[in-house]
Amino acid sequence: MEWQTDLKHFAVNHFLVGLALLTVNFLIHHAFGWLVRGDFQQAVQHIWFVPQLLLCILVADLAQYWTHRAYHEVPYLWRYHSVHHSAKTMDWLAGSRQHMLEVIFTRVCVLAPLFVLGFSEGVVNAYIIIVGFQAVFNHANVHLPWGPLKYLIVTPDFHHWHHASDDEAIDRNYAAHYAFLDYIFGTAVKVPAHKPFPEKYGVVGDYMPDGFVNQQMFPFRAKPAAPAPE
Ligand SMILES: [Zn+2]
Ligand SMILES: [Zn+2]
Question: Pick from 72, 138, 136, 64: which is nearest to 105 by CA?
Fold first, then answer.
């Protein structure tokens, strides 16, 4: 059953990794506080909470965008990321399906600039909670009329197209929070007028094994010429 596999991914990726991230954030600000005490970092920390949070999400999503794009464009990295794309039905749980090393590597790439720039502990905690919720929300089967907001923020429709194996959707819609990043970098899906929703999900070629352990082992077992994201 796909959902039982995804439940294991969910437990590992949300609870364990979420807890680890909050702990790292605590340590950075309490044990390694000297790292983030320059004038520039002080200035960042004095921005009001809400604008600082919006800025923090922008920096995080820029880092996330390029990390995510590398996972699609570098064949070796795709071996790990294809686990996330192997879900053939999209629902809130499917988004948790991710290779453990991908989760850790992406979080390091995203959190490092946040600490270097000096975002406050409260803002980074708020970001960690938001990213956990948005990871679930982006995959949920919720279709709402977003209007022009869909060009600004990532909606489930936007991210469902990222998971589509329809031709026009391959290697598109990388953003996790701010959809406008894909419009700026020219990677947004042009949704066909006759087809508002994707026809199929999953990896092209359907080569991912079933089961949590098999999926965690997949990148190490894959042949050197693992199928690239076509
Ligand atoms: Zn992807
Ligand atoms: Zn996804």
Answer: 64
